[in-house]
Amino acid sequence: MCTLEKRGSVYVLTLTGDGEHRLSPTLIDSIQAALRRVRSDPTPGSALVTTGEGRFFSNGFDLNWAQAAGSGFLERLHHMVEKFQQIVADLFSLPMPTIAAVSGHAAAAGFMLAISHDYVLMRKDRGFLYMSELDIGLPFPDYFMGLMRSKIGAASARRDVVLRAAKFTAARAVEEGIIDAAHDSAGETVEAAMRLGEELAGRKWKGEVYAGIRKATFPEICEVLGLVENKKTTTATASRL
């Protein structure tokens, strides 16, 4: 599951336990409840750090849970895909800076969870970023593709992520601009994320303004998530009035 605590001005959301932090419906619900608690805090000047215990940040959706349904596998997978989309939407609309402290492997939906944050820091002594869909024969949800186009700027890096199923170490991910920084250990990664969180929270920006600018910065994924209107559709509708 996950825990939420506030250290100074920074909320720390931790995926707990030594497992793979697979994004089952139960874990997704737990994360969403934590994000609701963060959003409800009226105190100005906060930030969020998300991290995980053990060797994994998150190894993606709970495919064992989906496969346990037999012929209902795709239905269960679709259920997780839809539920997780709301987590991504919550992070893109959260009224404060967000930082992922990637403490280990981040694969598939776990990778997407990381890059849904404003900043991504990663340990370099263990773990990689990896989109496994090509290797296991599953298509990408539309919002995964929108997220990767929005957050992975280099076309060659996106190609290797989606069409080569490449496993990116922290060092390579920094080189490709996928993450912001790499640190020697999980502990140092979290410490660096906390320092960044305190620095950003100290600016005491208005939360609604910060969230609005974030959505304007990444219009494609925010449109897919239903956070902003389709400008073409809006313009066409207005022209008929």
From TrEMBL:
GO terms for cellular component: peroxisome. Gene3D superfamilies: 2-enoyl-CoA Hydratase, Chain A, domain 1. SUPFAM superfamilies: ClpP/crotonase. InterPro entries: ClpP/crotonase-like_dom_sf, Enoyl-CoA_hydra/iso. Its EC number is 5.3.3.8. Pfam families: ECH_1. Pathway: Lipid metabolism; fatty acid beta-oxidation. GO terms for biological process: fatty acid beta-oxidation. One of its GO terms (molecular function) is delta(3)-delta(2)-enoyl-CoA isomerase activity. Keywords: Lipid metabolism. It catalyses: a (3E)-enoyl-CoA = a 4-saturated (2E)-enoyl-CoA; a (3Z)-enoyl-CoA = a 4-saturated (2E)-enoyl-CoA. It comes from the Eukaryota. Belongs to the enoyl-CoA hydratase/isomerase family. This is Delta(3)-Delta(2)-enoyl-CoA isomerase.
